[in-house]
Design goal:
Blueprint: H1 2-10, H2 24-39, H3 54-59, E1 72-81, E2 86-94, H4 100-113, E3 117-128, E4 131-133, H5 137-149, H6 151-159, E5 166-175, E6 178-186, H7 193-211, E7 214-217, H8 230-235, E8 238-248, H9 249-256, H10 260-278, H11 287-297, H12 305-308, E9 312-318, E10 321-331, H13 343-352, H14 363-388, H15 392-400
Helix pairs in contact: 4-9, 4-14, 6-7, 10-14, 11-14
């Protein structure tokens, strides 16, 4: 090891290349020690981890120096009445925010007493939108028309890069001489960003060659990936999923210590009017909280919380109670690939019954999306109830401050 340290200091060995000459655990340990020496920091807390890292250093994290541990709590059980997830589940939530798991747990209790959450997936398609430069607006129109007229050929070319993905459509958008082609793919059980990127590259190269347009960037931000965007709110990206439950008046009083009318008013004035006045792209109480906790626990890309936060929460007063629903236009989840193969994250997916590939392909990812929507519904119910009963500050004082 002393020779490797010397090689690092003298520049004969690059820090990122340690895995080429050492076993993964030794490479991580040496890299961490080198950074400690360089910075004078104590990074020993990062050295304790239980996950096998052979796969991690190859697929998930470059220049790894250890692991940050995040507490995982469990909320539930909650009955999910979906088309792909039709069962009662416990929700693993990775978070450092006191009161979050307790809040979701209370929402799960309300849903359970109400008979379960109805959940449906409305559409499913992962997008990538390359941008091309045309010579003129007339040429831009020709490029867009070519893409639409030759969809079958483009589909065959794109799908030649993957054994699972399917190109299910494309929509052109023109801005002056810029042409954006928003490809949409069925990625089965994978979240699918790598899949659609590789497939879109081959399709875009073909379009550029055939039309004379210049491919400027494989992503032109019309996708839209990991950024708040109205196009995702309107058209959807990944899974568009909705979940709802009817709460009788007595249940509202028993669980949330408020009545249905006050719950509806909080939702209207906070989630709808307040969000509209703020110019928000999401109309919800804290959907991102539940999304982030589930995504981190289950090996998803946490940056996709941005799109998931465009959730809309609605509350419809009805005879004898209220029907509360959440609609999430852009839920990007997968049960294979990415971080789903890391041992701890795979364990959380197994807890939900969705680890690995589903039968038929895509069934597990869809079931996971339905479970995510039910979890978001539980979180929304609990926070709306806490606000309606004026209990929010008290709960955070008791749970968030110990």
């Amino acid at each position: 090891m002393d020779q490797y340290r010397s090689d690092l200091r003298e520049g004969r060995l690059k820090l990122y290349a340690l895995e080429k000459v050492l076993p993964p655990d030794d490479a991580v340990s040496l890299r961490r020690e080198y950074i400690e020496e360089e910075t004078g920091s104590d990074l020993s807390p990062l050295s304790s981890y239980s996950i096998p890292i052979d796969r991690v250093v190859a697929r998930n994290c470059e220049n790894m120096i250890g692991c940050v541990q995040i507490p995982v709590g469990v909320a539930g059980p909650v009955p999910v009445k979906g088309e792909y997830a039709d069962r009662t589940v416990w929700l693993p939530l990775a978070t450092t925010e006191g009161a979050l798991v307790a809040s979701v747990n209370r929402g799960c209790s309300a849903i359970t007493k109400a008979g379960g959450a109805e959940v449906r997936i409305l559409r499913d398609g992962m997008t990538r939108a390359p941008v091309f430069a045309a010579r003129s607006v007339a040429h831009a129109h020709e490029v867009a028309a070519f893409a639409e007229d030759h969809l079958m050929e483009i589909q065959e070319i794109a799908e030649s890069t993957t054994s699972h993905g399917e190109l299910i459509g494309l929509v052109p958008y023109i801005v002056g001489t810029s042409v954006f082609l928003r490809f949409e793919f069925d990625t089965k059980d994978a979240m699918g960003m790598n899949m659609v990127t590789i497939a879109s590259q081959k399709a875009a190269d073909y379009i550029a060659e055939e039309t004379g347009a210049r491919l400027v960037a494989l992503s032109g931000n019309m996708c839209t990936d990991k950024k708040p965007a109205a196009i995702n709110l309107v058209e959807g990206r990944g899974k568009t999923v909705t979940a709802g439950v009817f709460l009788p008046d007595a249940l509202c009083r028993d669980v949330f210590k408020c009545n249905a009318a006050s719950l509806a008013e909080v939702n209207m004035r906070k989630n709808l009017v307040g969000s509209a006045r703020a110019g928000a792209l999401g109309f919800n109480a804290h959907a991102a909280n539940i999304l982030a906790a589930l995504y981190i626990a289950c090996g998803q890309d946490p940056a996709h919380v941005v799109e998931g936060s465009s959730c809309i929460t609605t509350a419809d007063p009805m005879d004898g109670g209220i029907y509360v629903a959440v609609t999430l236009p852009a839920v990007q989840v997968g049960t294979v690939g990415g971080g789903t193969g890391i041992a701890t994250q795979a364990a959380c997916l197994s807890l939900l019954g969705v680890a690995g590939s589903g039968d038929p392909p895509g069934a597990h990812a869809k079931a996971f999306a339905e479970i995510v929507a039910a979890g978001v519904l539980a979180g929304e119910l609990s926070l709306l109830g806490a606000l309606a009963a004026q209990h929010l500050a008290r709960a955070h004082k008791e749970l968030g401050r110990g």
